[in-house]
């Protein structure tokens, strides 16, 4: 059965008085007044052996995949802003706070969207950061860079698997915000440089890299404490 839901950013706590490209004007393009037409219920993900979740098939699988990644980013930035590393500058604090708000909005949006499309939804995941020192600037920035770059390439790589045009439009809006995040983090690491369009993230055609879900999960898998599978895309 098809279901229609509406999701907005009403109640978000972003400060609209500060003017830069990470503020509500940017996130509003992705989140304000979005309408989704739900997937068929038979696209639900399933319990696998030992209660390990499979993300499912079709568009629901892609949405659950995006939801898993947004949960990771939101969790990471929550830890950053709840205990800023020593010596953090006011600019860095502002950027991390903005990114935290954005990722929480993304995470909550996907939860609402999937809940409106199916009776089954990926649960809240647990994460681990064995190689991250949250008290060290370089460690936090390097991890943020890896997560944001991976997020952009993940959306780009999964786009071709989306069949619902409404979902594809939403993914395009969110990935543009994720790319702004990646650019902001790279500028904190190397201010005033051209690293925002470095050869490690832009291909020879001047396009952002796109990575298959299997490659993304391999790269970011160490952060996920809660196991899940996506049999349709070769993730087990």
Automatic annotation (TrEMBL):
Keyword entries, A-Z: Membrane, Transmembrane, Transmembrane helix
Coiled coil ranges: none
Organism: Chryseobacterium soldanellicola
InterPro entries from the UniProt entry: Ferritin-like_SF (IPR009078), TAT_signal_bac_arc (IPR019546)
UniProt key word Phosphoprotein: no
Entry protein name: Tat (Twin-arginine translocation) pathway signal sequence
Transmembrane spans: 21-38
